[in-house]
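Following the same procedure, backbone shapes were mapped to integers, yielding the entry below.
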Amino acid sequence: MRLRSLLFVPADSERKFAKADRIGADALILDLEDSVAPGRKDFARGVVKNLLGGGPRNWAFLVRINPFGTGLTLEDLAAIVRPGLDGILIPKVNGIDDVDLVSHYVDALEVAAGVSPGHVKLLVVATETPAAMIGLNGYNRGNKRLVALTWGAEDLGAALGALTNKEPDGAWTFPYQVARAQCLFAAGAAGAAALDTLYADFRDQDGLAESCRIARRDGFVGKIAIHPDQVATINACFTPSDADLAHARRIVATFAATPDVGTVGIDGKMYDIPHLVAARRTLASVGEVV
């Protein structure tokens, strides 16, 4: 599952879905949570069920469910776990135990719906509650369905009573820098993809591109989008350039030609095993197996 760009779409809007279907995102997240009013949850579930029955797609079909504590989680899962669903985004988790519980529910629902066991993957918004921040070390035990972790600042800020989560220059304040970094570490420990949070100003393409550049530099492999106009920029930023790929192939080939050494020289620069790991990851991101 390629996860450079993941575009949110309100689950109760077939019009917005029709537009998003053609936009080029790696995944669409049909949202049953915050973008759907309480009185339209049932309607939104019905829309998702109908859309899941559509034809072949070149993007992953994900659904963000309502979190535990709302009383809506099981209704969401029962409605959406069916052929066509690729993954579930779980918001406001308090830790890996919540992920495991959803995974157990999906085990049973896949069987009931005739879905291949293990097909539905789980993605987690891992930093939206104070308890979640304390429990991030639990992700190192993993979960067979878990493929990605992302982070969010708005719900965490509301839970903490923060007046703002941004500095005057737009940088994250310290608590949210911690949340971002801890998500990155937890994803690494779980063997999952780390996805950067949304960039709120969808008209600011330069700011979005810089945000993506910093995220990719730090180890994130994709980013949440909240508007179709953000998708192309995100895809471009998280796609290795031809020069990046050529350099990665050269590193891999040089190590393969000298399997008994831990360090190689290329064009006057020394490369060691961490560089080899990074090169393989770069090639894997475009489907090259090395």
